[in-house]
Amino acid sequence: MNSCSTVMLLRGSRWNSCRKLFIAGIAGIRRWWCKKYSDQNPLCLKLSQVLAAGAKLTRVCGYIKESLTVIETDNPQHQCYQRLLTSASYGFWEWNPRDDSVLLSGAFWAEIGYLVDPEGQRFSVEDVAPFFHEGDWCALLKSLAELLERGENYQSQVRSFDSCGQQRWLYLDGSVARNTDNELVFVSGIALDHTKRHELEQQLQLSEERHQRILTASNDGIWEWSRESVGYHFSDKCWQQLGYDDPDSLLSSERNRLELWQSSMHEEDLEYFKGALEAHLKNNKPYDIEFRIKHRQGHWVWIRARGQADFDADGQPYRMSGTNMDITHIKEAEEKVLLAKEEAEKANQAKSEFLSSMSHELRTPLNAILGYAQLFGMDTNLSDSQQQSVREIRKAGSHLLQLISDVLDLSKVESGQMSISVEPVLAKRIVEECLALMQPLAEAKQIRINLDVGALPGVYVNADAVRLKQALLNLLSNALKYNREGGHVDVKFSQPTAGMLRLEVCDSGLGIPLGRQAEVFEPFNRLGAEGSSTEGSGVGLVITKRLVEMMGGDLSFVSREGEGSRFWIQLPQVADWSAMEREVPVQEVIGQGSLQVSGERRILYVEDNPSNTRLMEQVFRRFSNLHLETANEAFFGLYKARTSSPDLIILDINLPGMDGYEALSVLQRDPLTQAIPVIALSANAMPDDIAKGEKAGFAEYLTKPLDVERLMATFNRLLVEG
Question: Alpha helix (H) ranges present in 27-111?
Answer without folding.
Answer: 76-86, 108-111
